[in-house]
Automatic annotation (TrEMBL):
Domain named Zinc-ribbon: residues: 16-35
Organism: Desulfuromusa kysingii
Keyword annotations of the record: Membrane, Transmembrane, Transmembrane helix
Subcellular location(s) per record: Membrane
Protein name as catalogued: Zinc-ribbon domain-containing protein
GO cellular component, one term: membrane
Taxonomic placement: Bacteria, Pseudomonadati, Thermodesulfobacteriota, Desulfuromonadia, Desulfuromonadales
Amino acid sequence: MNEVAVAPIKASDEKFCSECGATIKEKAEICPNCGVRQLAPPSGVNLGPVTANGKNKIAAALFAFFLGSFGAHKFYLGQVGMGILYLLFCWTFIPSIVAFIEFILLLVMSDETFNRKYGRA
């Protein structure tokens, strides 16, 4: 009745089996416990360094370039109020001009500055 769930512990060179949850070596292709082949980690496009909260400078710049008139980059960076303001005034094309300027500023911004400004969790 008073059971406490204990989370399994793994070392830095280990992972959990995708099928049975057993602790196995990180490079193991097949789980020795259940025999299930492990999936390879996703090999997505690397867009550069990521902040502590998962934000990426290049992704933010791409949002600003392609969807900046609707404030998508502001929503992505956690500035919801500014994103709503961009949405309210998107018909004036002013947010498009500002977003293009912000696109350029995001591209030339150093990773340290980006992390300091947008990297809080």
